[in-house]
Every structure is written in C-alpha cells, then in structure tokens.
Amino acid sequence: MDGLFAYEQVLDLPRPQSPPLVGPIVESLSRRIARGTAPIRVAVVRSSAHSLDVEVGVLEGLEKDQRARLAAMLRLRRRAVERTEAFTTVMVVPTGIGCAVGGHAGDAGAAVRLLAAVSDRLVTHPNAVNASDLIELPENALYVEGSVLARVLLGSAGLAPVRANRVLAVADRDIDEHFAEIAVNSAAAARASGGVHCTEVVLLDPHVRLASQYAPSGRATGRVEHLERLLHVLEERRGAFDAVAISTRIEVPWSYHRDYYEQRGVMINPWGGVEALLTHAVSSLLEVPAAHSPMFESREAAAVELGIVDPRMAAEVISLGFFVSVLEGLARAPRIVPLEHGPLAGVISVEDVSCLVIPDRVLGLPTLAALEQGIPVVAVRENANLMANDLASLPWQPGQLTIVENYWEAAGVVAALRAGLDPATVRRPLADLTVARPSALHAVTP
Fold first, then answer.
1. Structural domains counted in the chain
2. Where are the beta strands (DSSP E) in 87-242?
3. Amino acid 439: pLDDT
4. Lowest CB count within 10 Å: 22, 264, 313, 433, which one?
5. pTM, to two decimals
C-alpha cells in the first residue's frame, strides 16, 4: 500500500428534516468527499434549520474494496430491543474541540469515575482518560477507540471483553534517539509495574508524518502522511498482537509548546485532532484497538520551563513520554467484533447501550446514532466547547434528551434511568398529567 494519507475536508450538507438522519447524512457526505477517499471521522460543527457544516476526516490511497468496507461501517443497523441485564453508559468527550472537561490531559478522569459509579458498565474512549503517564480507568470501564465507539452505537460493531491483550508498541525512531529510548522505557515500566503484556517495541524508520492543523471552525485536526509505513509493520505482525500502542512525533509550530500552557485552556489542544485521525484509520483498517501518544520533537521542546500550569494540563508537564496511559488503557481494551447480522451472545452491542452522555452542542455520529436508536442522551452544559449546534432542535422522542448543567446532575439522571425512573419525576415542580378527552367514537357500518 503506497501513499496512504489522512486529512479533513469541509462540507456543507443539507440537513434532513425528519428521521432517518444517519443514512442521508452519510450518503450525502460520501457523494461530496474527494474522489478516491473514504470517511473515517465526522463532526457537525454548526447546524441550522436546513444545513449542516461538517468537517469530515478521510483516508486517501485505499483500494476500492477497502473504501467500500469503510463506508459500510458507517451504516446504521437499527436495534430491535434493548438488553437490560446490565446498565451500560457510553461517555463521549470529543478531542480537538476545546472541551472544558476532557479537552486537555485526561482531565475528564474524575467525571468518568463518577459516571462509572452509577453504572454497571461504562464505555468511554482514550481522550477522556489518557493523562500522559496517569490513567483513571475504573474496573467496570471499557477503553474503546473513538471510531469503534461510534460503530457500536451505529450497530455495525460490538465489543468482546478480554482478560488481557498482547499490546504491540510502535514508536518513532527519532532523529534524537533519546525519545525513542523513553518510549521503550515507558513500555518496560508498564510491563514491570502494571503487568501489561508488552514484549516488543518496534522503532519505526522511516516514520509516519503527523502534522497538526486547525480547521476553519477552530477544531484541532491535521494531516497524516505515509500511514502505509505503520500498516506494513502491523500487517507483518498480524496475529501476534491484540492491540497497538503508538508513540510518534507531531509537528506543531515551535511557539505552541509554550502558548498552549500559558493561555490556560483558551487555546485548543493542538495535538489531539491529528491523533484521532491516525487511530481512527488504524482501528478501522485492521479492526484492532489502537491509541496514540505524542512524542517530543526535540530536547529543546522538552526543556521548555512552564512553571505551574492550569491543573487540567498538569499531567502533561510532569511526563516525558506521555505513553504509559496508552499502554495501560489498551491492556484490557475489548476486542472489536464486526456485526453484520445482528447481536451475538457475549458481545456488547448497541442492544446493550442504556444511555449516552455527551458535552452539550456536540453533534457527530454517536449523537445521531443514539437519536435513531432510541437511546436516552444526557448533554452537559458545563462541558463548554466550540461546537455550535442546538441539540434540542433535533427530532428526539419525548424525554429522550436531557440537558443538565454539570456532571453531578448527569450522574443523577443516569442513576434515575438505571433505577427505571423518569428523571423528571425526581424534580419539582412536578408537571401535571396531560388529560385527553377524545371525541366519542361512532359506529362504522360496512
């Protein structure tokens, strides 16, 4: 496979006026994206009554059958029933949009633990819990790459829990091998201290190029070049690993190494968006759990003195490798099971999802899929971000969308749903019942 690239395109799509929504939106963007590309990531950054401003991540350089397979992953398989043996919460905090909670260095970890405490099972993604060399992943939480999480809600994939994964580590063989050595030592530390099954680190040379960019909306995104170099290494070792942890350089302007921290949360994290493009591509093409951590570009970047930073960013400034959270998260990440013909015994699927918790105004495939699947959605206002969508304007079923102020309230709504309660009945004032008086029925003669 030669010349495989990932990048984003900006599209203006018509907004469907009534369900179904996912099918028409995916068909519309598939017609509009550049010829020879396949979509792997979709973000609706602004919506109006009749249009959607969409930034879509695409892969270029695939064979025709690979493009068709990736397109099929975005089709919605509607669930017929909800399985209620366990209450499964899905929590999404998209990367690259400046979320007040989870937009920095795993600073959604406390919120993840809170929601896990009121759920039987929590499904979340690396962006919410990866904090460089720290990770807050409760025992009842599943660590799932973002594109796979979207596919679970769409119904095209399921999750098979595991006791342990064989984790393959891949790192840039940097111009300055000091940072490659840090990646190796990080893998060794995760193995020795955490029992992670990682016995090989592949030093990639030549490397995959990741460059950070900002989209017109202000979202962090980027461009991935020569992805085939990584895929070649992974294909050679197919069957010898269950998950892949990746550490590579990300090109950013030199000033970002200081500006991001000095602006204390005003600047969108420039690294996460291009990381998502990379891991979406790997997980989609190889059907394996994948996660990425950035590697310092130079000793000069690593030596920048930042002083005391915003607490949400502190996990980054105390680390040199940023890699241990990825290795430990992937150690028990569930395996990906394609679901072409419906749910399977022992596999967590959309039939098991009890609710979705998202930041308010976030609109992507998980939100759209939940809407169509009849899954309750809890949107958190306090998790402010740069998306510009009025979620209440979507065609929800009565009571399906609950907008709350913060994650304290979100936990209360999740607890009510788990108990089988209408969350509104816990609030006061309690609305009166609607009393309907239909007109008298008239006999109909044949």
1. 2
2. 88-91, 121-124, 130-131, 134-135, 141-143, 157-160, 167-172, 201-204, 209-214, 220-225
3. 78
4. 433
5. 0.96
